[in-house]
Each structure stands twice: as structure tokens, then as C-alpha cells.
Amino acid sequence: xxxxxxxxxxxxxxxxxxxxxxxxxxxxxxxxxxxxxxxxxxxxxxxxxxxxxxxxxxxxxxxxxxxxxxxxxxxxxxxxxxxxxxxxxxxxxxxxxxxxxxxxxxxxxxxxxxxxxxxx
Length: 120
What we know:
Low-confidence stretches: none
Helix content: 40-55%
Radius of gyration: 18 Å
Largest sheet: 2 strands, antiparallel
Distance between the termini: 62 Å
Number of helices: 6
Shape: globular
Oligomer: single chain
Number of domains: 1
Number of strands: 4
Strand order of the largest sheet: 1-2
Mean pLDDT: 83
């Protein structure tokens, strides 16, 4: 392969390397140094081990699991649109919009979920 072909390939690959990863929930960019994780749309415990996953900021992922049980996620929140439409998560997402893209804070389980689980 000649120098021109090699340079052309490198130039074509540049946009792919620089394309920002975007959180599927809050739709904000995930900086390379920010905490992020994959969220199983259907929880693994409910048969979603081979199902689809989406990349989320860690704070967005933690917010989902702090508010809802695995059963509730599987039953009514198994897609991104349903998650965004949920009133509790919508309030969280509105609050998050004013934060920097790489923002992270500890997330505590909601009282309602703690009481139903009977732990902590």
C-alpha cells in the first residue's frame, strides 16, 4: 500500500476515533476519563444476559438501579424511551442537565426500594 493510500485511510479513520460516546439515557457526551458502564436493558437476572446493552454515565446507571428493582426494570422500563419517560428519572435527568458531562456523585438507594428489599 502506498503512502497516499495509507494517509487516506488514516484520514478516514479519524472521525471514528474522535466520535464522542453519548450516554443513551441523558444524551450527553461521555468524556474518555468519565465513569461509565453498560446497562442491560432487560436485567441479566430476568433473562437479559444475551439481550441488548447501552452505554451510560455511571451516575445515570446508578440512578436507575437506586430507584427500581430488577423486576420493575424488566416489566416496565426495558427500553431507553420508557426510562426517560418515567417521572422519577425525568426529574433526575432535568437536574443532571446542568452538570458537566463527566460529573459523578454517589447515588443512594431510595427509601421506597430499601424498604421493599428489606436491606440496608
